Q: What sequence folds into this?
């Protein structure tokens, strides 16, 4: 039997892999050409850009995981102690403007409920936990659609508060939404294959 700690580790490992995959699809990776290898100063510039990309990818993943780790930790605490969740309190930890906080709480609620389902399910891997909790691909995709819509509302609420130009923010949030949906659907196909 998979322990609560094992389930927690499987879920967080999946979320980290998801964040890394998303970062690879959203962030622009510098490309190496033969000329860069032949001309050392250009290769040094490429190496500098690649290090920035690597650091940016890690930072992207770390930031992406903040809400997920908070919701997962809250789910574990609720299961272990049978206490009521404090999703508004978790949302306040993000120091978001008041008009964004409700959207953030919605995302946390969806993640929290998902994690509680997974943690209460039986299985020896993340994929098995998903199949046990959701039973069918259609049920799992309902959760995916619900989360995607809540994340889109959160991104739309955050956009006016960001310092970058609206075009750049819209491009990035659009890319995140597009790739997030695609990665989740690819995962659903893999989990429920056969």
A:
């Amino acid at each position: 039997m998979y322990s609560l700690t094992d389930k927690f580790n499987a879920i967080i490992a999946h979320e980290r892999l998801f964040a890394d995959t998303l970062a690879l699809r959203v962030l622009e990776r510098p490309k190496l050409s033969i000329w860069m290898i032949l001309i050392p100063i250009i290769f040094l510039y490429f190496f500098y850009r690649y290090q920035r990309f690597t650091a940016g990818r890690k930072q992207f993943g770390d930031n992406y995981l903040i809400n997920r780790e908070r919701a997962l930790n809250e789910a574990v605490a609720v299961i272990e102690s049978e206490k009521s969740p404090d999703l508004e309190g978790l949302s306040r930890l993000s120091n978001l403007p008041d008009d964004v906080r409700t959207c953030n709480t919605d995302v946390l609620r969806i993640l929290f409920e998902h994690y509680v389902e997974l943690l209460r399910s039986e299985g020896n891997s993340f994929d098995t936990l998903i199949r046990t909790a959701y039973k069918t691909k259609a049920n799992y995709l309902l959760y995916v659609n619900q989360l995607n819509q809540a994340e889109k509302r959160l991104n739309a609420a955050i956009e006016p508060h960001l310092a970058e130009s609206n075009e750049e923010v819209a491009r990035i949030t659009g890319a995140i939404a597009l790739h997030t949906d695609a990665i989740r659907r690819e995962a659903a196909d893999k989990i429920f294959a056969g």
Observations:
- The helical segments are 4-26, 34-38, 40-81, 87-92, 98-120, 126-134, 137-158, 166-191.
